[in-house]
Amino acid sequence: MKQKTIKHGYKVAGCLYNLVNHEVLPGLSIHANDFWNSVAEVLAEFTPRNQQLLVTRANLQSHIDVWHTDTANQPFNQQRYELFLKEIGYLVDEKADFTISTKNVDDEVALVAGPQLVVPLMNARFSLNAANARWGSLYDALYGTDVIGEDNGAQQTKEFNPVRGRRVQAYARRFLDETLPLTRGSHIDAVKYHIVKQKFTVTLFTGEQVQLKNAEQFVGYNGSIAAPSALLCRHNGLHIEIQVDKDNVVGKTDAASVKDIVLESALSTIQDCEDSIAAVDASDKTSVYRNWLGLMKGDLAEIIQKGNKTITRSLNHDRHYLSPKQEKMTLPGRSLQFIRNVGHLMTTDAIVTATDEKVPEGIVDGLITSLISLHDLQGNSKFKNSKQGSIYIVKPKMHGPEEVSFSHDLFSAIERHLGLVQNTIKMGIMDEERRTSANLKECIRAAQTRLAFINTGFLDRTGDEIHTSMHAGAMTQKALMKDEPWITAYEDRNVRIGLQAGLQGKAQIGKGMWAIPDQMAEMVKSKIAHPKSGANCAWVPSPTAATLHVMHYHKVNVQDIQSAMKAEFSLPGTIDDLSELLTIPLLKNQTELSTTAIQKELDNNIQGLLGYVVRWVNQGIGCSKVPDIDNIARMEDRATLRISSQHVCNWLHHGVINESQVLESLRRMAEVVDFQNAGDSSYIAIGTDFNHSIAFTAAVDLIFQGKEQPSGYTEPLLHQKRQEVKAMH
């Protein structure tokens, strides 16, 4: 499709130009020429700054590399190292305390704590599933996972298992006892749920009628007041709907005719343009933007074929109830949508300069996704996303305060050009790069008028940890990285600095992903640590996981945790010591590592690397469940790939392993990965012809060119190889 030339000689890919002119702009009070002139002006203003920030990154990394290889700095001294980082500007001076002034933030961000989904925006079905995950069946989540045990795989069969069903009901009733306690007795003994004199009432098997200990928890109902079909309660700001089926289908309901307990689950979703997708050209980007348009206009739909049935999946409607006083009330049927733009590194051919140079992809993302979001702000959508009239953009992979300032200024320029009030665009800062972690207070300050989200991302953060200190020495084993001092300091400082900067009641403090989607029992056991840490949201891999994880936010009142932590942080003597955060996670027992242990670490990294790369490069799958070396399905994305490739590169650089070992493992693990994907008819094997497999060469390059990749990012090589595959078809 032909390019369209706009102001300053910029050329826009025809597919993107047509999307904007014929699908995005209709219904908005912006003329096409005015918008494209704005695009050109913003690109002309911000591209040089973007490029200079990347130069600064490279210069800082070069200084660090030289410092680690200079014998004058051996043996390593932590204090001298930190002084050096200040001298080169890697660490900036912290200024006076401050409080963010973000306004017009939705309750799902500011006031109510709960799960958050991250989903590839390139996949319409996944995007719809995530948007619709605001409400989830607790019965389904328990029945279909390992939370209540395996029952010899009974939860995987299509035929209903009444024994398992009763275990689900018992578990759910215990959950009700914890969240909606009664004045006497237990929900386990309930034989009827009804409304008496505007009060939530339970008749027990003894015939006694009891109410909620806290009567204000009952907020609404459906059906008639004499025979409600659903009773709605609220706990810790989250809603619980008890559904009653008067037909009382045998085995599917209990003694009280309860057919399900539906939980308000994923309060927010990050629709991802970045880490979880494989968009490498103008056509891909246009598809991504079109899905965002569908979400913002409320008309995104996906046709799914299930056997002989054709199903059209679309966005859920809002949920309507009557209050106990029979006043109408409405609750959102969908999670609040954020969008994650790409970072500062990558460029796109969706728009090129007069001399055919690609422009920064993050700038284009900001312009196009904000334009599309006007449909929500101006009331053109079937469904409202932000009730407060805000646009939520998460910015990943920023290195330090200068890069946050750049994004803030970019958003301000976009607001001016689109006629938006300043700070309409809210920013989410991903604390996933070492320089941002070490300067987090000043990063928050740089976005203090629009900040709505900070988050720890252990995976990318580990990748940057390895690359930043590549020349310092061999890194500890990947599985032991979470035991290193820096990770505890990183997770704790993020919450503390966020609370000290006034994020409570104004913004989200988030924690990272549960990466093993089939092990929900372990997630339910361990992920409660996230709300206990003071984080008011945490990432989950699926709608089912959101419904299970939300139980943690009923067990833990995050607002109370945050208030207690703020009081503790204000005590005299609280200091910010960077020593632990900047402790390099070096391998401590290299001479004691056996040949077998080294080979196991190498094979584990290589298998995970290949298993992800082959799908990304050959099939364009950005994020999926990939079996690890032990055949345990794990969520893999570019962040996990960054760790694996950088870890092998680091061990190779320091002589823990050699080139022949790496190549041998690559070839042997290729056969393992091919075997694991044998059931996928669209899979392209990599172990049959190493010399001509683009995916295999991508894996090789990620390792052997790993030191030279900017910040150890995998995107440049992945995009190049994916483009090569697309060019062949």
Automatic annotation (TrEMBL):
Q: Which SUPFAM superfamilies match?
A: Malate synthase G
Q: Where is the Malate synthase N-terminal domain?
A: 17-69
Localized where?
A: Cytoplasm
What are the residue boundaries of the Malate synthase C-terminal domain, all occurrences included? 598-678
Annotated residues that bind glyoxylate are located at R340, E432, G457, F458, L459, D460
Q: Which HAMAP family does the UniProt entry name for this protein?
A: Malate_synth_G (MF_00641)
The Swiss-Prot or TrEMBL record describes its family as follows: Belongs to the malate synthase family. GlcB subfamily.
Residue positions annotated to bind Mg(2+) are E432, D460
Q: What is this protein called?
A: Malate synthase G
Q: Which residues form the Malate synthase G alpha-beta insertion domain?
A: 160-235
Record NCBIfam families? malate_syn_G (TIGR01345), PRK02999.1 (NF002825)
